[in-house]
Structures are given as structure tokens and as C-alpha cells.
Amino acid sequence: MTGEAWLPVIEYVQSEWPGRWLAPDLPGHGRSCWGMPYGIGRFAAAVAELLCQAQPVYVLGHSMGAAVAVALASGWFGVDVKRAFALGIKLEWSREDLERSARRAVRPIRWFDDEIDAKKHYVKVSGLEGIVGSRSPMVSAGVVKEHEKWRLAADPRAHFVAAQPPNLLSVLDSRVSFAAGELDTFISPHELRQLQPDAAIFVGAHHNSHIEQPLAVWGWIFNQLQDVLG
């Protein structure tokens, strides 16, 4: 997905967050450039380059972006992360998961003659069917026109990340908060609560809970930042 996937949450951020904010496209996604290699470390380093290292920051990530948020909180990238919010992170990677990811990464680019068809495909592969329409701004950001045809904006190779680095979760401390949708197929409530007993579960939400239930997601963040938000 692109940074526009956060638009429903950004509505609350704009009205209630006292500082600056940004929702970047990770390398190989949206408007960001394509180019191997891809990986959690590469993504985290790219985000760190956008941040002022002299100032504390709060980071929020979803799915693969959640792993990036955790990596940034590790201190490995020179960023002073006061709190990281990891939403819908995938912890367990089976051999089948990795093989599926590898196959997806080498698929040829699919071209569409029509913008609407490209947008419908983006909605489908992003798990957004029944959640947003093809005319949504977050969908428009997911496709691009090139040589009079349309394709998805993301580099297929960016989808392949060889599971999370095995020592990623070893950096966890009280600065990292986890949450997921109750019906998220990437991580079950049981898995999440084993990792963090007080992790937030959004009842009735699936993997894209920040789009399905943006107010609940913002409430999860807001309640933990009372010292900042007042």
C-alpha cells in the first residue's frame, strides 16, 4: 500500500496531533523509486533519512510497515523513537508463506488498458474489497499510467521480504505497542496477546483495521500519548 492508506487516520491526526507528521511511501511503493534490494532494514533506513535525528518521534506502521516501526524503535537507525505502534504485524512465517511471497515477487507486471480496471485490481490485491471504492484517493495512489497503459504503482519485488529478521523482536521494550483486527488472518488475537498481554484487539476488524476502524486505531494511539496530547 501507499501512504494514502493512512488517510482515514490522518483526519484525526490533523485535528489532534500538535506536531508535524508524514506518511511516506516505502521504497518500491507508491511514488517512491524502485530498486533492489528490498528489506525491513532498507525500508527503515529510508524512513530514518526523512526524520530529524535531533528530535524525538513517534512511529506507526501497518503489516510490513509495523516491522519497520519496530526496527526504527531499535535505535539501529539513529532515530529517537519515543513510542512505536505496530498494527497487524505478521510474526509467524511458514514455508508456504515464504514460497507464496517469492512467487508474487517474480510475477511479471500486469498491464491494464483502462484505469478503472487497474484500480479494481489494486483494491482486490490490497484486501480493500467492500471497504473502499475504486474512486478513493488511496486507490488512485496505488496505480500509475505508463506508456499509455496502467499498472500497480508498487514494484512486485518489494513484496518479498524473507520473513522478519530473527532478532527483530528482541529489541522490544515498553516503547512498542501492538494491535490488530480481531479477524486479521496475518496474526490472531492469541498470538498477539502472547507477545503483549495488553495488546489492542479491534473487534470485527480484519487486516486493514486502520481503514476499517480509523477512530478505534486513533483512540489506541491517543490513549497512550496523553502526556503529549494532553
From TrEMBL:
Residues 3-217 form the AB hydrolase-1 domain. The keyword Transit peptide does not apply. Pfam families: Abhydrolase_6. InterPro entries: AB_hydrolase_1 (IPR000073), AB_hydrolase_fold (IPR029058), AB_hydrolase_sf (IPR050266). One of its GO terms (cellular component) is membrane. SUPFAM superfamilies: alpha/beta-Hydrolases. GO terms for molecular function: hydrolase activity. Keywords: Hydrolase. This is Alpha/beta hydrolase. It comes from Bradyrhizobium commune.
